Amino acid sequence: AEAIASATHRPNRALYDLSVAIDKLPMHFMRKNEINKNLSIFEDTLGGSERLLSSPVPLFYTRHTARFLSTWLLLLPFAMYDPFKGSWNHVAEIPAIALASVFLFGIEELATQLEEPFTILPMQGFCDKIGANCDEIVSWRGQGLDAKSVVEENMDAIAPSR
User: What would the pLDDT profile of 102-120 be if each residue is shown by its tens digit?
Assistant: First the structure.
């Protein structure tokens, strides 16, 4: 754990430690190979996620969206003047415009939050759950399933000798 905490790039160190641990597992090489394939897929996905996190949305885009939305909502009462001519002094227009503004600014704020999803997701909870699942899998060792006879029976079932 200290090696991971002190590493420059913690995910790569954790993946390296996982790879070393997989190599040391007492299981058939075909099973290790399948686990390593999944680890490679996980590493590729991690790289894609890091690229998403490290490539920010241009500030101009965020500002332009907010300015456009503000201008549009500021001009909306003029567009809604005729449809609300039946209400006394167009008073029903005020709550309608306010409701539309709340909804649209809410969507804009949600979009801003989703630009960096890793800051709002409970990543520690995800990692704790994965760690607990790994600990459970490791605890199964020694229950007779890793005995040589069980491994040989499984291999005979997969590839019977000729």
Answer: 999 999 998 888 877 767 7
